[in-house]
Amino acid sequence: MNATRYTAALSGLVVVLMITALFTPVASADSHQADESTDDEDRTYRIVQGDQELTVDPIQGDVPVEAFYDYRYSYLPRDDPAWGRSFSSEGTTAYQEDDTSILMLYEGPEGMSLVAVHDRYHEDRDDGTDGGSVSWEITGLPENGEWAVIDDDYGWRNESVTQDDIHQLHPDHRNGAAGSNGEPPPGVDARLSWVWTDGRADGMAYRGLGQGDVSIMIEPAFNENSYHRYGDQRRPDVEPDDLEDEAGYNGTIDEWQVITATDDSEEFRRISLDSLEDDVVVEHVPESEPESEPESPAPTAALSGPEQAVVGEAVTFSTSGTTGEIERYEWTVDGDPVEAADGSTLTRTFDEPTTTEVEVTVTAADDQTDTASKTVEIVESDGIAGREQTPGFGVGATIAALGAVILLTVRPIAT
To answer: How far apart are CA 396 and CA 3, in angstroms?
Structure first.
């Protein structure tokens, strides 16, 4: 290879290496970013209360949950972004409603958070409803989670401020909290008890639902059932509240709602929970839940018996041909239950000519049911219902007489 060709080949190799070096970091960065993303995008979450099971899509945002919640209080320098006099969440007002507690999931750049807000903040407090009181006992908090917001936690920052709220946190679940008002009840990760006045709201945000198995249970106590209701004497550290001065603290929460995102990023849905008293579980749905036991085939009822029955004569109806593991038979005649009949057959005597319907409902071991029915004509003993008969003539005699008449009619006449 001469010098010119060698130089050209070497130059080409250098160009290839430079191009490769140029694009390799980009591909590597994309791959690294994908590896660092949380599992949240691949997870499905649900909220369960009793028989109510709701699939919940998180509200998406590009700011941390603290900024999404945007809690404001005045015990901070005025240049602090959280300074304000609302003592409420100003970032979730679009989701808040008067006398309503909301529960939602928020997915921001730092992962998945559980967010709750009680009542609605009004800039002009006279526009709002009376405040209220709520307490939750929470179990199942993720080990690596943290309190992003506890509204209100300003009492822990300034000991001279009397706290309205009581937050008792287990030592293993105090990450992110400024302090704790003691131990929660045994077996409980946190007891949060909120009290707020008219035109304001209270709540919290807990971050860290995106890793591992998540199953958080909330045992609620709204209004008079709360751990601390304004004016009661369950707070040994302070004198009882003066209800005449602060009557606005004792409003009520009348509804508990779940907020879920929709396909339209600008919209969301509200779903009301059935109860203010029953526990709620917030959990992620495993990718492969254990398959439930296959449901037994539904029973098929069959009913056989005569289509016509004679007055005064017993007839039998049978469920022969019915399929399934039948545990119970319920019979009716013209809609009236036959109390003495609970087996697979029914024997019945009818007292007068009529048309009647016999029905049987069969119930299988798994409580599945099926029904079969049969219409029966009840006739007089001669088998012809409702027709008067000539005395002394039966059906056979009548036919013989008709035959004789015909023969006499067609017989040739002798001449």
So the answer is: 130
Neighbour tally for 282: CB within 10 Å: 22
**Whole-angstrom Cα distance, residue 147 to residue 57?**
21
Backbone angles phi, psi at 201, to 5 degrees: -140, 160
Q: How many CB atoms lie within 10 A of CB 17?
A: 10
Identify the helix (H) or strand (E) that includes residue 227. none
192: helix, coil or strand?
A: strand
For 307, which DSSP code?
S
Q: H/E element holding 19?
A: helix 3-36
User: Domain 308-385 adopts which CATH fold?
Assistant: Immunoglobulin-like (2.60.40)
Q: Which residues neighbour 136 within 8 Å (Cβ) at sequence distance 6 or greater?
A: 116, 190, 191, 192, 218, 219, 220, 221
Strands (E), 249-353: 255-261, 268-272, 280-285, 308-310, 315-318, 326-333, 336-337, 345-348
Give CA–CA dist 270/55, Å, rounded: 12
Strands (E) across 119-275 are located at: 132-139, 146-151, 166-169, 190-196, 202-207, 215-222, 255-261, 268-272
Tell me the DSSP string of 49-94: ETTEEEEEPPEE-SS-HHHHH-EEBSSS-TTSTTB-S--EESSSTT
In angstroms, what CA-CA distances link 73 with 88, 97, 99, 157, 267?
7, 21, 22, 11, 29
| Range 395-410 average pLDDT | 48
Rounded-to-integer distance, Cα 27 and Cα 25, Å: 5
Q: Nearest CA to 303 among 290, 315, 321?
A: 321
pLDDT, tens only, 329-385: 999 999 889 887 778 999 989 889 999 999 999 998 888 899 999 999 999 976 544
Q: Give the residue extent of every domain in the chain.
A: 39-285, 308-385
Q: Are strands 100-108 and 255-261 parallel, antiparallel or unpaired?
A: parallel
In the chain, the amino acid numbered 277 is E
